[in-house]
């Protein structure tokens, strides 16, 4: 029971990091670079459809795919994340925390990737475009970081359609940074796990 509570708290914290990245750093500067939250923002800007309705719709579709194609454990964790994400995104105010555009771009990309990584560590997701990378990795062996980049290409096209090539270019750069930070987090995690395995082995040999 205690481990389940810790896992759910870790899941909510991961979702919160993504919401912070969007509402404090990226969206206040009209940087729609990643995730279903950015898709909701772009569709709301272009076609005046409430972004939270868009997020709910996409998340429900992704839940169906997770149920059909992924492990039941991932589906259960995705249910919680998919329900929590639109709620936290709506509750967290959209505030321009920093007026420096480039710093906000980097920090927003960093926190977004950290949130995704935190969810992937426990086999969970906040729904939306974080589901396809899990499917791509399971069925096609494509790395999660690359999967995140591929599934966010639609956002680049939406930026191009709704804004201009400049916003599309910035979106692409932010998505690249998210993928880059994801690779860094994964390498650190792999090194940490390898070090733990060595320590366990050395302890066993001493005993």
TrEMBL record:
GO cellular component terms, semicolon-separated: plasma membrane
Main localization category: membrane
TM regions (residue ranges): 49-69, 74-92, 98-120, 141-162, 168-186
Highest taxon of the lineage: Bacteria
Keywords for the protein's UniProt record, in alphabetical order: Cell membrane, Membrane, Transmembrane, Transmembrane helix
Coiled-coil segments: none
Cellular compartment(s): Cell membrane
Membrane topology reported for the UniProt record: Multi-pass membrane protein
Keyword Transport: no
Protein name: Transporter
Species per Swiss-Prot/TrEMBL record: Enterococcus casseliflavus EC20
């Amino acid at each position: 029971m205690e481990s389940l509570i810790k896992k759910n708290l870790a899941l909510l914290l991961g979702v919160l990091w993504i919401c912070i990245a969007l509402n404090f750093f990226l969206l206040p500067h009209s940087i729609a670079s990643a995730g279903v939250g950015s898709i909701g923002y772009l569709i709301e800007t272009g076609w005046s459809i409430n972004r939270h309705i868009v997020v709910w719709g996409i998340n429900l579709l992704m839940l169906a795919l997770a149920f059909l194609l992924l492990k039941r454990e991932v589906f259960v964790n995705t249910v919680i994340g998919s329900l929590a994400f639109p709620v936290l995104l709506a509750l967290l105010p959209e505030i321009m925390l920093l007026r420096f555009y480039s710093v906000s771009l980097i920090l927003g990309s960093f926190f977004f990737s950290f949130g995704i990584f935190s969810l992937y560590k426990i086999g969970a997701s906040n729904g939306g475009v974080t589901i396809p990378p899990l499917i791509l990795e399971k069925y096609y062996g494509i790395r999660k970081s690359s999967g995140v980049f591929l599934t966010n290409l639609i956002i680049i096209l939406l930026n191009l359609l709704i804004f201009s090539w400049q916003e599309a270019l910035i979106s692409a750069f932010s998505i690249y940074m998210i993928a880059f930070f994801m690779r860094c987090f994964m390498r650190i995690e792999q090194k940490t796990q390898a070090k733990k395995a060595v320590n366990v082995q050395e302890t066993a040999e001493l005993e």
